[in-house]
Please model this.
Amino acid sequence: MSAESDGGGGDEGYKAGAPAHVQPAFGFVVRGDHEFPDGKRDQNLRPSPSQVLHLLPMTGRYAWHWLRCLWNGKKPPIDQVLSAYKNIASGH
Model:
């Protein structure tokens, strides 16, 4: 039996344009003929009202944590990382 007939023996049995039932022995097959639609893409990244409702508890917890850190005279952890990065970037 040849590698083309049974699909075994690695990728030598796979040819571009082969039927979907012919699979290589290892890996996966990706079709390379996908065409993306022409035209302007709308990057509307605004959250929907239901997503905003789900984010409100997290926003409140973060705001409370941030205010507590400021009250105690400390920087919130993310601000510490950013200031350390700025010091590294500036050479200090």
Summary: The radius of gyration is 27 Å. Residues 19 and 29 are 11 Å apart (CA to CA).
